């Protein structure tokens, strides 16, 4: 056929044969050494998603396959010697472009795009040596097909009739079946996935994932399904392959309210013991030297979670008692108590005014803020809501409008606004990202700015 000629080139690549779909043999040459030294042609191959998008609305198809398409391009005479290959019958070199060269696909698709440039994205799809003609009606398809065949004749590009298919209502293209109803996976490819042998190492896992990922658009939650296999491709991961073991699983339902600020107590019932144990060795030794009598008595205050509700420390109670003397409302209550008493109000043993066993907090903003902050922001309390916080405080403190002040304080808490569910839009289902075709094709960054200034002087997250 004039494709090869005897050679005296210093180059020489080994040869092997592979079977084609029609049963004939294709000669393949291992140009690994030549490709390693070749300056790569970065001509972009078309994206399969873009090709399939063009077929929307098409109902008639014809598929044309060129006869040994690569061999229809001549090689520059100065480069012919580089294509030399070795056989048991002698040393030969190609005068046309052979299969196996790293730049062959890019060169050939560049040629095809230039030949059919006028018709691309209208009624022709070209992928290397495959030409697909598509139309929305038989009449239109006849005109399109004549145009394509005349173009091939004019450019002296020859098709292999036995591999061409005309006037189809469905056509196989790039591992998919295209019809007027849409696109589906080629059943032969599904069988290939099903019959894939068990991978024995990370490289074989990557090969399988590459085939499976090609059809990810048809698989809901693909990234989640293949996650166990993806982990096996990590360098630090030990490769272990075993059958999935059966196991019994008991599911227990624990009733409770949603709690976004999760902690170890989020699902505990109110009556369960919750306490923090510390060892103060110095205090233990001090009490050991004392002669003390332990007397048990029922608590005057209710026990919540096995520990008493919030109690004041001495310095805070002293400050509250001292500031009571400067509050007009508290002084008026003290005068009524001195005059004969008023129901529910009385003086404590240290002289502080109380209401039903709770110390009366004077109208001092700094004092109220300190109490509210301590009751809301302590690490052990996990930022309670306004209702729970009010119930905790009301056993020890009282002031006019305390419930309203608690609600306003919780509503303005920055941490609660950032993490609690009632301040957030529902998340929805996670959606896998498409795998880019090229490096640096997609760059993403998540950031939020303009937030209220935090205690550490930060107002952005990224």
Automatic annotation (TrEMBL):
Signal sequence, start to end: none
Q: Which GO terms describe its molecular function?
A: endonuclease activity; peptidase activity; RNA-directed DNA polymerase activity
Q: What range(s) does the Reverse transcriptase domain occupy? A: 1-178
One Pfam entry name: RVT_1
Keyword terms, alphabetized: Endonuclease, Hydrolase, Nuclease, Nucleotidyltransferase, Protease, RNA-directed DNA polymerase, Transferase
Single Gene Ontology BP annotation: proteolysis
Q: Which domain of life is it from?
A: Eukaryota
Q: What is this protein called?
A: Uncharacterized mitochondrial protein AtMg00860
Organism expressing this protein natively: Striga hermonthica (Purple witchweed)
- Classification of source organism: Eukaryota, Viridiplantae, Streptophyta, Embryophyta, Tracheophyta
């Amino acid at each position: 056929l004039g494709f090869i000629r005897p050679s005296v080139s210093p180059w020489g690549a080994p040869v092997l044969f592979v079977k084609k779909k029609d049963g004939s043999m294709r000669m393949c040459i291992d140009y690994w050494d030549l490709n390693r030294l070749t300056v790569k042609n970065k001509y972009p191959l078309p994206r399969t998603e873009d090709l399939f998008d063009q077929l929307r609305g098409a109902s008639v198809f014809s598929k044309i396959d060129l006869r040994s398409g690569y061999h229809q391009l001549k090689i520059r005479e100065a480069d012919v010697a580089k294509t030399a290959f070795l056989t048991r019958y002698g040393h030969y070199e190609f005068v046309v472009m052979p299969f196996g060269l790293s730049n062959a696909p890019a060169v050939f698709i560049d040629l095809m795009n230039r030949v059919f440039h006028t018709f691309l994205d209208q009624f022709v799809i070209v992928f290397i040596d495959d030409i697909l003609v598509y139309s929305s009606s038989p009449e239109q398809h006849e005109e399109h097909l004549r145009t394509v065949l005349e173009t091939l004749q004019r450019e002296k590009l020859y098709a292999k009739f036995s591999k061409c298919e005309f006037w189809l209502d469905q056509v196989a293209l790039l591992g998919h079946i295209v019809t007027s109803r849409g696109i589906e996976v080629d059943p032969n490819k599904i069988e290939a996935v099903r019959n894939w042998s068990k991978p024995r190492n990370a490289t074989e896992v990557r090969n399988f994932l590459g085939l499976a990922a090609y059809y990810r658009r048809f698989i809901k939650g693909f990234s989640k399904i293949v996650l166990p296999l993806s982990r096996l491709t990590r360098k630090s991961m030990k490769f272990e392959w075993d059958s999935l073991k059966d196991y019994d699983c008991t599911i227990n339902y624990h009733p409770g309210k949603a709690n976004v600020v999760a902690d170890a107590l989020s699902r505990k019932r109110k009556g369960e013991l919750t306490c923090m144990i510390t060892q103060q060795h110095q205090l233990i030794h001090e009490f050991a030297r004392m002669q003390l009598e332990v007397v048990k008595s029922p608590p005057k205050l209710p026990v919540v979670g096995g520990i008493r509700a919030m109690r004041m420390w001495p310095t805070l109670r002293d400050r509250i008692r001292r500031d009571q003397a400067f509050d007009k409302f508290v002084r008026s209550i003290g005068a009524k108590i001195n005059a004969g008493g008023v129901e529910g109000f009385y003086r404590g043993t240290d002289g502080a005014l109380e209401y039903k066993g709770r110390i009366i907090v004077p109208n001092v903003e700094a004092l109220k803020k300190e109490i509210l902050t301590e009751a809301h922001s302590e690490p052990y309390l996990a930022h309670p809501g306004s209702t729970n916080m009010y119930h905790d405080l009301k056993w020890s403190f009282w002031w006019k409008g305390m419930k309203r002040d608690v609600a306003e304080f919780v509503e303005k808490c920055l941490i609660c606004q950032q993490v609690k569910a009632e301040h957030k839009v529902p998340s929805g289902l996670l959606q896998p990202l498409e795998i880019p075709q090229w490096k640096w094709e997609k760059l993403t960054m998540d950031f939020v700015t303009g937030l209220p200034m935090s205690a550490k002087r930060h107002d952005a997250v990224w």
